[in-house]
Amino acid sequence: MLNSFDWLRLCRTGAELLATLRFLEREPDLFPAGGEIGPPRSALDGPCKRCWVYPRLSSPRRSFCPSCQAVMARAGRLGNLSRQSIVIWSHVNQLPKHLWAREGFYKKHILGSYVHGQHHFLLMMRRRKLKPWLQELLLYHGPNLKGLIQVLPTSGAKKLTAMGELLCRAMHHEARFSMDQLRVRFFSAPYQLLMPHNRDRKGLLTFEVTDFLSLLEMAAVFRTILLPDEQQSLYDLLNLENPAEEQFYWGRFMGLLNQEARDMLSAWRIRQWPHNRVKLLYELVEYVAFYQTD
User: Fold this and answer.
1) Cα separations in angstroms, 123 against 41, 89, 165, 175, 206
2) Which residue ranges does the chain devote to CATH 3.30.70?
3) CATH class as words, domain 84-201
């Protein structure tokens, strides 16, 4: 029979994962701990076409068991929310205390959570809540919390990699890391979990937690000071292959910016950044909110 984590691994999309997390928390009786299994697959009948364990609903033209039918029906209403969300899979030496209490940030901003044993937990939250969540985690636990936090994107129905498979691959990757410090692995797209070594070699994947928070801070400042059109123009400019052409357009581009934006780019020396660092900055912009300015 299927346990709670089995139901999570069955999820194909982020919406299904969020629906399953909410059912596990609010209506756990929906998922049977025992009961009969479905009939063998045949031309006329068979088990649920999603879990392949339990019998299908008896009503005509139904292909799923009651549990899978409920998850898929709820997932249909959570698609927009899941596309704005990320999945956090963590292997740590101690579970955050607020995770149990469901208070503070966890009560207000966590969309769904699951605790797997004494050292693993899973969270879903909106992408732009990643930075405040990490800040609160370090505020309450500081250097005592060690392990690996993996930031995963949600997968859609048209993606080749299912959400459940992403979770399994994340579990597989965690075995490489010791519990000597708290690290963050940042995946911006589902396919990156299939080939993480390419991203790791470029310095785009694994970070010490305070370094990753610093990168998020830079992304928040960048997003606040530069307008979207200015961000795109800067990205195109930094990716020009002809140095003479870049030099020509750089002066014109800086002349279009306000003084605050010019000071920021000059202080960062962003023209000397390697392309991989520029790419990471633009990826992280989608994971931070604007700073409130007067």
Assistant:
1) 35, 7, 16, 20, 19
2) 84-201
3) alpha beta
